[in-house]
Amino acid sequence: MAQRESIHPAGENQRTPKPDREPPGPADAVAFAILTLVGLCIAIVATTVVDPTAADGAWTMVAIIAVPATVVAGAIQILTYRLSLNRSTSKSVWLWPFAVLPVVLMAVMWFAVRGTPDYYADGGSVLGAWAMMLLPLLMGMLLGPIVWFFVLFPLGFLISALVGRLRGDKGDSVLVPLIWLGITACILLLTFGGDFAGRRPGIFALIPALTGLPLGYEVQVPWMLWVVRGFALLCIGLAVWGWLRRRAVARAAGADS
Question: Mind listing the pLDDT tens digit for each residue in 89-120?
């Protein structure tokens, strides 16, 4: 019996091997180190230069919760960016956000607790009050992936889409990250910006808050409301710009035909 010939040309049904990832370089460690050191500088300022007892301990929460969450989120964003470029990352760089940051931050909080024992310890053990800082520190680090998912990931997606549009590419849409960030902005607005308890339900309270009309809400953090309002204006401007751009492209295509 004659041997059956393959109906596929040689090599056509073979899988194309994936290109090897670029090996990690010193830039990885530099990026993670800068991110961690900037976060530690903010924590030091929040606990030493600024009165940690001001605003009912808000600066302490920034140092022990917001800083770890932001550093971990930034580290995840760096990792995803390098993966998108098919570049590998050394495992040792994770020592910066998960080893250097918590150790140095706990040392910073030790000096903060020792400096104001009446506020942190409230007449109790200074060592016990300092040890209790581990709980919000771990909470902040666990919040890092959530911050990345709701803030940094869609923000990076939006920047990438805008850069692509400026270069003439029509790949990624700016609508998805805008909606993503809009949801995040609404969450921040409802959580920190105003007090809507017993006022108006849901979306009906957002409209006067975004427009500044004094109807049905009480401002708790004015700058937070202004940040969200600025973001809302940015979203509206980008939406109008995209609509005008599509109309211009459609008119140009109609004129050519």
Answer: 788 889 999 999 999 999 999 998 888 888 88
- The helix (run of H) or strand (run of E) holding residue 219 is strand 218-219
HEC assignment per residue over 76-113? HHHHHHHHHCCECCCHHHHHHHHHHHHHHHHHHHHHHH
Task: Quick: pLDDT tens for 173-219.
Answer: 777 787 788 778 777 766 666 655 555 445 556 667 667 676 666 66
Residue that has been written with the tokens 């991110």 in this structure: 35
How many C-beta atoms surround the C-beta of residue 67 within 10 A? 26
> Do residues 154 and 180 lie in contact, with contact meaning Cβ atoms separated by under 8 Å?
yes
- Cβ proximity of 136 and 64 under 8 Å: yes
Contact between 217 and 199 under an 8 Å Cβ cutoff? The reply is: yes
**The Cα angle at residue 90 between residues 92 and 157, in degrees rounded to 5:** 115
State pTM to two decimals: 0.71
Q: What phi and psi, each to the nearest 5 degrees, are found at residue 2?
A: -70, 145
Torsion, CA 155, CA 157, CA 160, CA 163, rounded to 10: -60
Domain range list for the chain: 24-143, 173-257
